[in-house]
Each structure stands twice: as C-alpha cells, then as structure tokens.
Amino acid sequence: MHSSSLKTQELNAQVQYRLIEELSASEQRYRELVERIREVVFRCDGDGKFLFLNPAWTALLGYSVPDSLNRRLVDFVVEEDRDTALHFTAEEPSEQESRDGVELRFRKSDGEWVWLLLAVQADTSGGRVGSLYDIDERKRAQQSLEELNSSLESRVQKRTAELAETNRKLGAEIEARKQIQENLLKAERLAVVGETSGRVAHEVLNPITSIFSRVEHNANNWKDFSLLLGNLREVIGDWREEHANATFAQYLANKNEDGVAYGDEDFELLDTILERQDVFQQEREADLRFIMKQLQRVIKIINNLRGAVRQNRTVEEISVIDPIDEAYEVMQDSLAKRNIRIVKDMAPNLPSILADENELIQVFTNLLRNAMQSIDEKRHRGGCIETVACVSGEMIEIRVRDNGTGIPKNDQDSIFNFDFSTKDRGEGTGMGLGISRRFVRENGGDMILESSEVGQGSTFLIQLPFAR
Ligand SMILES: Nc1ncnc2c1ncn2[C@@H]1O[C@H](COP(=O)(O)OP(=O)(O)OP(=O)(O)O)[C@@H](O)[C@H]1O
Ligand SMILES: [Mg+2]
C-alpha cells in the first residue's frame, strides 16, 4: 500500500473516531439534558401513543416510563379535558395553538390530578414531539384566587342585600317610631286636657257666676226704675190734660191732703227719677266693664286650652326670627304704651328650625307678656326686654330677659305648673308658661328659667334643634 494513502486512511480513521467520539459526547450531553430536565419531553405517533418519555414523566405523574409507552396521551388526561387533549395530539392544531400550548389536568398514579401545560409540534415522521410543563401550583393559586374573588363577590352581594334589608327595616322602624311619637304627643295633649279641664271648668264657672249676679242685679234695678217711669208717665198725662183745659197753673198750686202743692210733689218725682237714673247709669257702666273683663278671662282660658290641645299642627322649616318678630308685633301697642325699651340681638345666618310657627308665636307672646307684667308690677320706669338668639352646638338658643320683679327662689319650681299664678284673678290663669314649655317640647326643644333675681329681673332660655 502506498504510504501516503496509508497515511490518509489513518487520518480518516482518526477523524472518524474523533467524530464518533464527539458525536457520542454530544448525544451524552443531550441525553443528560433530556433526562435531567424537569419538564416532560415526549414523542408520540400519529395516534398520540407515546414512543418516548423522559424520566420527568415518572417524577411528575408517578407512572413508570416502560408501562406508559404505547399508551395514548389522552388516556392520562382527566375525563373533562380529553377532547381538548385529543385535538392537540391526534388532530391538526393550528400553529398558534401549538405555540401557546394548552392547560390540561393529568391523572397521577395515586389518583390525584395535576395541571400541566401541553405544547406539541408535528415531527417529520407524522407523529408529534412535545413537552409537559408543571403549572399546578400557579393554576391552583389562580383557582383559589378566583374562588376567593367569586366568594368575595357573593359575600359583597349578600352584604349589600342584607344592608338593603336593614335599611328597609330601619325605614319601617322610623315610620313606626314617628307614629308612636305622634300618638304620644296626642296622648300628652289629651293629658293636658285632663290636667286642666277640672281647673278650667272651675275657672270658667267663677266669672260666669259673677256675670250672672251682675246681670240679675241690673235686671232688678231696671224693674224698680221702670216703676218710677210708670209714675212719670201718669204725671205727664195729668199735665197734658190740665194744660189743654188751661187749668195747669191752678193744678200746680192745688195741695194734697198733706198740704204739699201738686207742682212741688211732681217736680220732686222728676228730680228723684233723674238722680236714680244717674246712679243706675254709673252702676250699669261698672257692671258692664266687670262683665266684659270676666268674659275676656273666659275667652283667655278657653283660648289657652284650645291652643294646648290643637290637633292640626303644621310643622315647617322656618326661621326662628319670624315667630319672635310676630310676637313683638302682637305686643307692640302694650309695650309702646309703657315705654318699655326693646332690644333684639339675633345672630346672623341662624340655621332654620322645624317647627309649628303658631305655637312658637304663642310661646314668645306669653314670655313677652309675663316680662311686661313683671315690669308693670315693679312700677319700673326704665323697663327693658331683651331677646337674644344665637347658636350653641346643634341648637339655637333664645333668651328672653327682663328687668322686672324677678321670681322668688321659692316660686321658681312652680312657675311651669298649670295652676301657679301670682297675678290677680283677672290678670293671669297660670297656664301661660306650662303651655309654652309644652309647645317648645313638642317642637323638639326645651325651655327653662335660666336665672332670676328678686328686684333684678329674669331670663328664660329656649333651645330648639336645627332642621336637618
Ligand atoms: N318674667 C317674669 N317675671 C316675674 N315673674 C314671672 C315672670 N314670668 C312668670 N312669672 C311668674 O310665674 C307665674 C306663672 O306664669 P304663667 O305665665 O304661667 O302664668 P300667668 O302669667 O300668671 O298667667 P297667664 O299666663 O295665663 O296670663 C306668674 O304668675 C309669675 O308669678
Ligand atoms: Mg303668663
């Protein structure tokens, strides 16, 4: 053999050897890679039967590789996911599908299942190569998140429904309470009637009895007087007759059996009648004044009572200044006549209140009248009534202050009673403050005597809540 060709042969053999060496080293590297990799790498035929599986298959699902070869991939997939698995292994998935892969549940040898991501590609011999990637942890986390979300959602829905139900119940309860409160107010008003009706009957009976006796006295007086007028009529008849007969002068001079001239007798009768008429007239005037005063008192008592039991209240959003101004207007003439100084100090922008305006007008009128009467009683020249309104917390506070007599400590607890009065029978019924406080309370507020000093004056405080 030619030495050079020998050399070439040797060289070729060396190269071949090196190639084989390198090839087997590379195969070794790939096998190692395929055997150690955590993903399952597989090959299957056109029916989807496994031809090759790496050890990761056993690690992930627990089946031995030899037992699994020649079995279809779909047989390891849980029932529900089988159609999808079939589409990917035995049919023609699109390129996109192949690239993205599909999430499937695989049954493990212990009966449990795991989520794996299947990616496949067609190989040159009409089969498939592919991989299975463990996505179980992520899937389960995602699933429990979804469950959590949906349970959260259903909890939110449930809570919302519960809240709506609570709201509805609350609404009904508020309605029921309003009704109860309304009934309580009605009952309270009726209680006022009960509390006051006996007293009112008594109070009304007194003036009416005295009115009756004055009227009776007047009637008797009138009877006496009309007897005298009867006599006068007779005398005038005589005079007219004598005058017609031209014997009038003679008639006047004639004397009766007591020796008194007819003329003197008649003129005396006329004088008597005129005198009696004067007295009677004066008496009648006094009686009429008395009767009017008594009737005023009856009217006042009945008005008070009617106010206390008013059934048709109109509660509206109003400014507290309106009923105060209105009360001053009612009292204007009486206050002006007495030269009482009026001071009004209303804070600007007072919030409105929810109240029955007429009731509050009565309240402030009662307070102003009391203040005025106490200034009267003190015979005070520099009388002054001050009304101050301001905001305190959630309330409007109104103070009515006078520099009248003041109220003795002993009386201070009684002034709101329905039968307490220090005034003359004709002046006061004692119901004013009791009714006023009830009105203020019915409008959600309260009323107290804040301070009073004998000889100095008194301050009444009214608190009323804002309208919401
Ligand atoms: N501003 C005041 N100054 C002094 N005393 C007062 C004042 N306000 C009320 N009083 C006392 O309280 C009593 C009760 O007052 P209240 O208004 O209830 O009845 P009244 O004024 O006597 O009668 P009415 O109001 O029916 O005319 C009064 O009689 C008086 O003694
Ligand atoms: Mg009064």
How would you portray this structure in words?
It is a single chain. By secondary structure, the chain is α+β, with helices and mostly antiparallel strands. The chain has 3 domains: 37-134, PAS domain (Beta-Lactamase), CATH 3.30.450.20; 142-308; 315-465, Histidine kinase-like ATPase, C-terminal domain (Heat Shock Protein 90, 2-Layer Sandwich), CATH 3.30.565.10. The chain has helices at residues 3-36, 56-61, 65-68, 82-89, 95-100, 136-244, 248-253, 262-308, 321-337, 357-377, 409-412, 432-442, and strands at residues 40-44, 50-53, 102-107, 113-122, 128-134, 315-318, 341-346, 353-356, 384-392, 395-402, 446-453, 457-465. Strand 9 and strand 10 form a beta hairpin. Helix 6 runs antiparallel to helix 8 (262-308), helix 9 runs parallel beside helix 10 and helix 10 (357-377) packs antiparallel against helix 12. Bound molecules: adenosine-5'-triphosphate and magnesium ion. The site of adenosine-5'-triphosphate has 21 residues, from helix 10 and helix 12.
Topology:
Elements: H1 3-36, E1 40-44, E2 50-53, H2 56-61, H3 65-68, H4 82-89, H5 95-100, E3 102-107, E4 113-122, E5 128-134, H6 136-244, H7 248-253, H8 262-308, E6 315-318, H9 321-337, E7 341-346, E8 353-356, H10 357-377, E9 384-392, E10 395-402, H11 409-412, H12 432-442, E11 446-453, E12 457-465
Parallel strand pairs: 7-9
Antiparallel strand pairs: 1-2, 1-5, 3-4, 4-5, 6-8, 9-10, 10-12, 11-12
Helix pairs in contact: 6-8, 9-10, 10-12
Bound molecules: adenosine-5'-triphosphate and magnesium ion.
